[in-house]
Amino acid sequence: MKYVLVSGGVISGIGKGTIVHVTSIKIDPYMNVDAGTMAPTEHGECFVLNDGGEVDLDLGNYERYLNIILTRENNITSGKVYQHVIERERKGDYLGKTVQMVPHVTDAIQDWIVRVAQIPVDDTNECPDVCIIELGGTVGDIESGLFTEAMRQLKRRVGKGNFVQIHVSLVPVISGEQKTKPTQQAIKEVGREGLVPDLIACRCDVPLEKSTIDKIAMFCQVENEQVLAVHNVLTTYHVPLLLEKQGLVKNLTSMLNLDAIPRASSLVDRGSRTWTEWKNLTSSQERLFETVNITLVGKYTNLHDSYLSVIKSLEHSAMRCGKKLNLVWVDASNLEEEARTEKPAEFHKAWHSVCTANGILVPGGFGHRGTEGMIQAAKWARTNKTPYLGICLGLQIAVIEFARNVCDIPNASSIELNEQCPDPVVIFMPEIDKVNLGGTMRLGLRPTIFQEGSEWSRLRQLYGEKKEIQERHRHRYEVNPEYVDRLAVKGLEFVGKDDKGVRMEILELKDHPWYVAVQFHPEYMSRVLQPSKPYLGFVAAASGCLEKVTADCMRDSVNGLEEGINGVRI
Q: Which ranges carry the Glutamine amidotransferase domain (predicted)?
């Protein structure tokens, strides 16, 4: 097994995750066991995996870029490691020894990495050849100390030629001059921790000057070709192209002796084909001029990373439709009547964004804030024939709006929003733990069955007329089965249900260009070369090319081109 450690200096969140390949492990030094209980505005979105693991958003980037399927074990946190060590101590696994940070915790980290690195991540079911470990945070931080020491020991443990470290640093531009001191200090800090970077990836707003590269190489004890300039590009999808041009693949191949690893010709062909498709698709973005205006009506619009997978899914779909994505952010609370008098400028701006949108998206979220504004946005989309996509909470919002304004149930609401609601069209799922929040939602990959008589469904056609699909879930609330018939009689059809037929998974309006809402989170499984079907249909409808995109998807399904990893995306 080969290992590539990607660490960061100067500041965190600098972009370490954009240069990883093959299989990946993300280390987060925080004490939380997982990301499930962390507020989106605190740490960005919580990403959900097939096995129900609630993990750091970077694992979503790994899956999207590498087209692989990861597990909850691929995200290591301080909380997970300490919990694991303490549980072993309680069982007597340490045979009465004094349990210490070194060697017991650092050994546990290494053993975890070595074990998880061998888990198959694609449909070949073979052990990966290379594991890329991203060490979150900043080297030198107190929280990262144990993990840095574990990485130093792992490097010694696996031996020369099996471990490469890439350190990502910042090269700021001050008064027009590229400054190398922060990078020099960062490399010295890494050295004090016992690690010597093999490659230095320099983040900068603009391409690095040759003199800057020369200076970094000289003072950081590396050759010029070991300094990678990762400057800002049009989109993150161009970063792999940028790194390839600078010889990253050549360097890693040499340092890790990757040529000695046997490769099946079918895998080589598939990799070459995928790389060609990636370059063609991402490069074509530069030649796109027509835009599609999507208005996202959400709760956490101050931190866009709260909806990172949603953004990526929209980007994937826009590229497939040959459009430039213009994503307009609207704080849902600004659409509510109170905002008209309290902050009129924001109120009118928000409503202008909704009224001029090509498509309206209401994503997931928790809590009461802004939900009345979301309901108003859903009503506008329904009554004005504007393409609408509701995700999780967005489905529940669509149900509430329809119940109030079409089914004449004026007090319709959700138990989450109003515990004393006389007409709860959305209720708490009976099996959910209401006290313990961590890991207790309906999580992970679950089946959705398209119902008989739903052949007209636009979304079903995009899935290639499949009767069953698999998508990832994360929710505590569901549509109240007692109201389903009343909603359906008026035209709100639940075309998809769970495998027991009791949980509403997909709703759709027949007399609308695109009014679709899903209880699951399709954004978690969207890929650059294989966009999520609900998002693709939504963006295609907003772009005026739904019929063509549907025909393409139907053709691909017939030709067997739509089957994804382990048959997950169908």
A: 303-533
